[in-house]
Amino acid sequence: MYKKYPSVLLIYTGGTIGMIENQETGALENFDFDKLAQHVPELKKFKYRISSYQFDPPIDSSDMEPPLWSKLVRIIKYNYDYYDGFVILHGTDTMSYTASALSFMLENLGKPVILTGSQLPIGKLRTDGKENLLTAIEIAAAKDKDDMPVVPEVCIFFDSHLMRGNRTTKMNAENFNAFHSFNYPVLARAGVHIKYNTSQIRRPDLSKPFHPHYVFDTNVVVITLFPGLQENILSALLNVPGLKAVVLKTYGSGNAPQKEWLMRLLKEATSRGIIVVNITQCQAGTVEMKRYETGLQLIDAGVISGHDSTPESAITKLMFLLGHGLSYDEVRRKMNISLTGEITE
Fold it and tell me: Are 144 and 133 within 8 A, CB to CB?
């Protein structure tokens, strides 16, 4: 009798995990992804059908852009019916941006899309890449007792933790625990066994089809408040031709200095149809603009809450919504509701 083995498509975009050290120069260089099995012979022990797709040339994660997010969506869409799950190997610097963007672009996703990478190249003796790769593949192929995917979400797996992609931030450039999900529980922990936090995992609406999206509008900017911010600089930023939205990183629970010119500039911007979304500079916690007078003034200026969104999620969500040509009011409304579990309402 024919036995159907789990199937996983590996998509290598670039990044440290797929690099080896040039013995002469010491520089890190991309290696041929077809030779992956030489560096990770453990792959042969999986009773899976594993295929690969490689970006040519590989992309350093610093160069990752929205058109490449669309390329990833097209690859997943084209192969959606042929694989049980997808693993995207990606550089760490912008991995949270890509994971956040894909969470919105892959509407009603019904299969795992797991992003992973490493802090050390996979050819290094102490690499974290092998464990990240092997466990990400196992999670991407995992089915429950009803033969349904265990984690039908866009996630990041790193250093034994599976996290919702649009809840993550890179918070360490030195250690193996590069990513953290500050405002949402991890979806799984990998030890001797992989223990899933099933109550926190999103499920697709089985009455609706998987719907991929490809469009973005990048006329957005992130502005961080800091002591000494000058009026002329903020004015210049808010009056850039074509600007449509701002992610405003404020203090604490969503507070801003009580400066007349600051509130005036923000109110002028929102009156012109620029969407201003307030998120906190703190790594953990949420925006509560009604808590203090310093937050209430932002509400009066037309600023909306970003709740407990990460910067990566807030900026990609704005790009996504604006790319669909939604009205000013509709974008504001959708920024205040959870589309794919990116905020706690």
Answer: no
* CATH code assigned at 254: 3.40.50.40
Claim to verify: residue 91 and residue 206 sit in the same structural domain: yes
pLDDT in tens, 126-159: 777 778 899 999 999 999 999 999 999 999 999 8
DSSP string, 184-237: S--SEEESSSEEE-GGGS----TTS--EE-------EEEEE--TT--HHHHHHH
132 and 21 together in one domain: yes
Active site residue 16: yes
The range of the structural domain enclosing residue 96 comes to 7-212
State the total domains in the chain: 2
Instruction: Single out the catalytic residue among 16, 127, 316, 340.
Output: 16
- What is the SS3 assignment for 6-75? CEEEEEECCCHHHEEECCCCCCEEECCHHHHHHHCHHHHHCCCEEEEEECCCCCCHHHCCHHHHHHHHHH
Q: What was the pLDDT predicted at 85?
A: 97
Examine the domain organization and report whether 81 and 199 are in the same domain. yes
Tens of pLDDT, residues 296-326: 999 999 999 999 999 999 999 999 999 999 9
pLDDT tens digits, residue range 8-30?
A: 999 999 877 776 666 667 666 66
Pair 25, 161 in one domain? yes
Asked if 271 and 306 sit in the same domain, the reply is yes
340 falls within a domain = no
| Per-residue pLDDT, 181 | 96
